[in-house]
Structure formats: structure tokens, C-alpha cells
Amino acid sequence: xxxxxxxxxxxxxxxxxxxxxxxxxxxxxxxxxxxxxxxxxxxxxxxxxxxxxxxxxxxxxxxxxxxxxxxxxxxxxxxxxxxxxxxxxxxxxxxxxxxxxxxxxxxxxxxxxxxxxxxxxxxxxxxxxxxxxxxxxxxxxxxxxxxxxxxxxxxxxxxxxxxxxxxxxxxxxxxxxxxxxxxxxxxxxxxxxxxxxxxxxxxxxxxxxxxxxxxxxxxxxxxxxxxxxxxxxxxxxxxxxxxxxxxxxxxxxxxxxxxxxxxxxxxxxxxxxxxxxxxxxxxxxxxxxxxxxxxxxxxxxxxxxxxxxxxxxxxxxxxxxxxxxxxxxxxxxxxxxxxxxxxxxxxxxxxxxxxxxxxxxxxxxxxxxxxxxxxxxxxxxxxxxxxxxxxxxxxxxxxxxxxxxxxxxxxxxxxxxxxxxxxxxxxxxxxxxxxxxxxxxxxxxxxxxxxxxxxxxxxxxxxxxxxxxxxxxxxxxxxxxxxxxxxxxxxxxxxxxxxxxxxxxxxxxxxxxxxxxxxxxxxxxxxxxxxxxxxxxxxxxxxxxxxxxxxxxxxxxxxxxxxxxxxxxxxxxxxxxxxxxxxxxxxxxxxxxxxxxxxxxxxxxxxxxxxxxxxxxxxxxxxxxxxxxxxxxxxxxxxxxxxxxxxxxxxxxxxxxxxxxxxxxxxx
Length: 668
Hints:
The protein folds into 4 domains: 3-115, Immunoglobulin-like (Sandwich), CATH 2.60.40.1080; 120-201, Immunoglobulin-like, CATH 2.60.40.1080; 207-293, Sandwich (Immunoglobulin-like), CATH 2.60.40; 330-604, YVTN repeat-like/Quinoprotein amine dehydrogenase (Methylamine Dehydrogenase, Chain H, 7 Propeller), CATH 2.130.10.10. The chain is 1% helix and 48% strand. The strands form 16 sheets. It has a 5-stranded mixed beta sheet, with no helix packed on it. Strand 42 and strand 43 (470-474) form a beta hairpin. Residues 1-27 have low confidence and may be disordered. Residues 36-99 form the BIG2 domain. Residues 1-26 form the signal peptide. Pfam families: Big_2, LVIVD. InterPro entries: Big_2, Invasin/intimin_cell_adhesion, LVIVD.
């Protein structure tokens, strides 16, 4: 399930959450069928078309015309809830129509959309070298643009060499320099064409040095191989491309997967222990080094220190803090219930118990946050009976007797899904579209002082986290967006490059990073304790099989992305991932060099994120521990659905959608 499903279904049409994956393609039941006109669309960019739909009975009579439309790819083809479609980008996409039949059965129809590609009008060679060396393979960069100004894939271009004995291109745009001489390369697509003339020189490389510093290497460690091509005189050849490859020397493990990977710049990481031979080539000159990589061997056990069962409703998020009396407390929200937030004394997790309950007018208290000083709490509301929703500000100085200070709904009536407290301000995710910045320095008289909203087609937002005056919001298809809300420049911090202009009342966008699946649900910025590198962890959320299917366990999808903003906010790069097969992520936390992930149906995962990160951390033996929170008396029995983790002092707390709150300890 993508963001449009979540926003429309969860916030506005909660009853429709019972649609299953099997029903996604069902157009009819025995008594009714959903009819959409037209059934398929072929459009050009900027075309607009109106869809219509209705429910017919078995005799063909129209019995209901209330149909909801939404898009799987709203940045490419948008659709309003009443069916007005606009083509934005070329490609093949899907729209969905959903409706409730008179017997309350849910019907859905998929509408395929083909947006045709405009003709390519411009081809430009970029970053072309002044010369090439014979025997080398070279990546050629092109900028290909069509009549609507969209960047196109260079694979749509064909290449012709004026002399293929000197240089030729393969089908993937790689240029092979074969012998000395001058050659003209022409790129063509339709009527567009561009040419580049280049000289191929003899390869001056006489020897190639290959070095590394892989002492006591373990799986998951990033090893940097450095290749230095030298002339016969000993001088380094500065401008010759180096190709890296490796050979694995497997042991006796049968049918194993990928053992390692190596990047174009010589960074190598092994997933499996064993011997590896890394080869570097500069044309026809090569060098190799063999290294040994040992298993990481960091696995530990998690012991249950305590459990607070909640099974009458689903449990949402949690927050754990040290109270002003020195004791430890937690607050958990509830999902699809009666608007309750539970307060717990967790000083002794083996005896954790509910000490107070705050009930507000809501169906869901999705998010719960406590201020750094342990005095103010904020809970979010969705599904209020008066539709005002908003946030509720609490006095939590005495968690045994929590008091409601005020309800704040100004401009927040669409529902607040998530919130964050930072320096006496609440960042409230408003109606899934933006976040409002609310001054609560006087909690009895809160005031909205700023807002931030994207201007992209069909934009949406799920969460926000603020660190060092920068708000990192999670915006589904638009990815992670960094916004200056009052940062202070610091020369030694890469995340503080090009900042200092924003404030609470004047949020200033710094940069963003979006990835193809469009599932960006949460983000957490951190600086590696072991390397000093700055990362933003971005987490997915998706429900391809349905979210809440008649009290059956849910099977989500998605993983964790590690993003670096190197050299400024306009240069993001995804460098690593943590992906558990056949499971999906929810919320997470970073403390020290450990990542704590509530991995929904895969439970709590604790991951070693020390050192440089590259590749899939799950395959590298970086998982320290795991725990599946199941309970036979859970809201859905024996079905783990971990929602939110938080390390606190010597314990790890995690809320579970079906079984409440757990406290765990890592055992050596």
C-alpha cells in the first residue's frame, strides 16, 4: 500500500482498510460490480481526462456512484479523488478506483495508464576526456532531453563510430579504445544527434601498484583498494581509468548467495568470510591482491526484561524518558481505539505497569512525544468525532497524574499523524500534506509560527525529525527533505554545509533525496561515532498485501536506506541498505554505532552500523540481535508487528501493534 492509500484510507476512509491483495484486481462480487469509464488510458504529457465510475447490480442498474480514485505514481500521473487525471511523466502506470457496495463489500478496479514519450530533441556529451588510452574501457556520459524538457535514459540513444577499429561502443554506452588514432563518435535518437571527436593514445602504463589496508578485515568492513598506474619512468599516469573486479574463493557452503561487491572506485566489502582476490586493470596492465575476510561474529541474545500486555486495542508509538523525579516512564499510543494514551512506570521493567490513562476525542493516538526536560507531552489525534483532531498538550511532570493543558486544533483539523518536539516547538504533520511549526513556550497558549509544504505534484508527508536546527521530513515519493529551521553553521559538520538562513517562522529547504520505490516513511539523522560520517537513515513502509485484513497477520515490505549528503545538500548518495527478506520496516532509532529497527513482522532488530557502510548490511553479519514480540493473548495472537523501538539506559523498549510494550536487554 502506498502513501495515497494510507492517507485516503487511514485518515479519511478507515473502513476501506479491509481491501485485500486478492481484492485489488476484483471488479465484481456476486451481487455488484464496479464500472469505471474509460477502462484504460493512453495519454500525452499534460493531457487531462475525467474518469467516471459507479456500482451496478447484477441487472446493470446503477445503485451507487460514490467512487474514490487515487494514483500509485502521483508524481507521474495524478488523479483527484473524483477522477480528474493529469499526465505528468512518460511511462506505464496504474490508477485505482475503490468503492463500497450497498452490502458494504469493498470493490476496486485498476486502470492502466500509458503516457507516451515525447520525441528526443537534444543530446549532449558531458565530461568528455581530452583523450583516451588504448586498451581501456570508458564510461561516456550523455544528457538526453525530450521535447517536454524531461531527461531521458541514454540507453535510448544509438552510437556510431567513424572507425570501429580505433574505438567502438557497446549496447550499454561503454566506449572501448582499441588502438591509437583519432575517431568521431556520433550519438543519435530520432532527429537528434551529437558528435564527439577524440584521440586514442598508446597506453603509457608500464606497471600497476595495488595496495590496501585490510588488516583483520571482517565481513561488512569496507576495504579501500588504491591502484597507482606508473610509467616506465615511475611517474603516475593521472588520467587512465581503472577497472576493478574480484574473484571469491568459496569454502564448502552450498548454494550461497553473493559473497561480496566492489565499487568503481575500489571500495570492497565482503558478505561472506573467506579469501578474495581483487584485480585492478589499466588497459592491458593488471595487478592483484588476495585478502582474507573473517566472519564478523557479533551476534548476541536479547533477554525479555519485562512486558506490558495491551490487547484490547492496537498499540502505536512509544516514548521513554527519565522523569523529573529520577524514575523512568513510558507513554504508548493506541490505534483504531478510543483515543487513549497509556502512561507506564518502567523503572523496573519486570514490573512495568500502567499508572495513568489519558483519553481524548480520537480514534487513533498515533504519536506520543515528551519534551527533553520531561515536563511537557504531546499526543496526536486522528478521527475526532468533531473532526477537529490536532494535538493535545499534556503536563507530565507527575506521570501518575497527567493533566491536559490544552487542545490545539488551529489549522490542524485534517488530522495529525506524527509530531516532534524541538526547543519549545512542536512540528505537527498536518493532514499528510505539510508540517506546522507550533510555539509551545507557553503551553496554555500555543501559536502556529511557521509551516513547510512541498510544491511537487501530489506531494505528501508522513513524519518529521529535528536535529541541530534541521528538520528531516519523510515525504513518500519525494523522499527525505532537509529543511533549515534555525541551524547554526559548524565548519566541522558536513550536515551543516550551506545552512543558517532558516528559522521556525521561515523554514528554508536545503536539499532532498528520493528513491525509486517512493515508500519513504521515516528518517533519522546521525553522525557515525566510529568514523564521523554523517548519514540520514531513511525507512520504507509498504503494505502490498493489505494493512488490516480481518484480524489476520500483516505482511509489509520495505527496507532501510543509508544516505550521505557529501559536499553539500545538493549531492545526496545512497550508500548502503539493511533489508530483511519478506518483511517491512516501520520506525527506528540510532544510538552510538547501533541501529534499532522495529521491522514490523520481523520484530525488533539491532544492527551494527560502525565503520564505513556499503552494500546490504543484513547479508554482512551486522545484525547483532533480534526479537519477535509474540503473545498468545495479543490483539492478533502470536503475530509480531513491531511499531517503534527506543534504547533507554540499559534497556531497549519496543512497542508492538498486537501485544503492547516490551523491555529487552542485550546479553553478551
